[in-house]
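Journal club prep, shared notes

We agreed each person brings one worked example of a sequence with its structure written out as tokens. Mine is NAD(P)-binding protein. I'm keeping it raw so we can talk through how to read the token line rather than staring at a rendered picture. Sequence first:
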Amino acid sequence: MPAIPADSLIVVTGITGYVASHVGLAALQAGYRVRGTVRSLGRVEEVKEGYSKYGADVSKLEFVELDDLESEAQFANAIRGADGVAHVALPGSVPGDSDEIPKQAVNSTIAILHAASKEPSVKRVVFTSSSVAVISPPGFKEQPLTDKDWNDAAQQKWEIATEKDKEKPSWGMLRYAVTKVLSEKAAWKWMEENKPTFDIVTILPNANFGPVLWGSARSTAGWIQATAHGDGTYTTNVPPQWYIDVRDDGRLHVLALSDPSLGGKRIWAAAGPFSWNSIIRTLHKEFPWLQLPPEVPGAQGEPDRQKIDNSVATKALGGWISLEQSVVDTAKTLGF
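Then the structure, token by token:
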């Protein structure tokens, strides 16, 4: 019997977000009832309309307002009666002090775990972590990576950072990596210390590409949008990494809730390495009228060489959406 059978109630935090929107869609398509948290109920109709276009049964969809991702009380209200939780949302920054984000993310992690521990119906909580909780790009060395690895280097850089370091363009990515390292470590530590009746799974996606279900390009889908517009900002500054189609990411979150064998695991959510040149070529082939950035020389234009053990996700999903299909579908949903 699956950890959480079909028709159970699943809570998806931040359901309007890029990855969370696909977690919600995949859950509906798998036969679950879904409760999505939103900062404002004003976006409810947009979400329903977006899901309806993909054939989802929106009669199984409900919403709850949650505007404080550090509030145990709000989480308790959101997960009341739920069988499973996918905590995808990342706290925003304190106004004027974005370096508070890592602390906020840890607080959010602990708050939802505390709330879940007081809700007898909860059987499993799935957290959206990130590949940067293991290592920061670039991966120009053929370095083997497993679910046992942690990005301690990012944490160390953060702890000794100077004000000058905070002015560097790379500071935002370091902050994001530290956010994911600290919040995921906090989850595992809390589980070890409290031993609740539910278990957890953490999903570690790399760069997400694939359809945007509503609104404008967000997160890494914006990389494809910018490149298709001829903007070389990402092709020249963002190191090549591994990718995952956001539809596979959504399905993997749902499988992490439903498959008993996945309980207690850290799961790499990465289909394979990509290069910026392969993305540029794919866009040129499918949309020959676009004025694209030039191909990128040297290692920046080559595929990521990290050796990631994605065997658990590969077995669970049964295969991956190709990079080419993912890039093309991203561009099409953005109007190209």
